[in-house]
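Suppose you are handed a protein chain with no further information: no name, no annotation, nothing but its sequence. What can you learn? This example shows the usual starting point.
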Amino acid sequence: MGDLFWNKVAAVIIGLVLMVMLIGVVGEVVFPEEHGGDEHASLAYPIDLEAVMGGTSGPAPEVVVIDLGTLLASADASAGERTFRRCVSCHNAEPGAGNLQGPNLWNIVGRQGGTYPDFSYSAAMSEHGPWTYEELDHFIANPRSWLPGTAMAFAGIRNDEDRADLLAYLQTLSDNPVAFPAPVVAEIEAEMAGDDMAAVVDGETTATAGDLEDQMQALEDAAETVIDDQSGEGALPDDAIGDDGEN
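A reasonable first move is to predict its three-dimensional structure. Written in structure tokens, the prediction is:
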């Protein structure tokens, strides 16, 4: 082997080293290596873990539950009549009309469950109590869940306002409509109103609100009397005041 061969080998080795070095330089330029420290913070992409995990920032939203009495107070019977069109294939609603796949719903509010004439009820429905607005609301929302064993195949109405409108329409299906339950807020205000509500003093019921007003007026009168008496005792005689009006 002559010098020419070894020169070729050396040239190949040097070429490989240069190529490796060049690849490293190009790699750093194209794909900069990320290191810890604030000077490289701009190279990192922030990840919103709460968004990825399906969470939300801040306090949990407040769930407002509206009572049935409040919903019925603003319910629309005409809208409920339109909703009732989903029921006419199985139920009559005229007084004295016969039954269809389901029983007649005239006078349904307040009626004992399973009692309409000439209809074959399920055992679960036959044992059910009176149909109050609350009972009907739960049943219409999900019949099979609320009353297991019922033969009613209706899937239910999940929307609270739609059910309230339907209940308002069912109220009209009667010669003697049953009154809606009072809204919870109205019941609380009614309990707190009136002069007959007993006032509690020192943990004991001692008087009505009207009695307390009389007692407060008596205390004010007594306080004014004491002030007037003290003012009379402490008044300066006329000769204690100088000609210029100052004592």
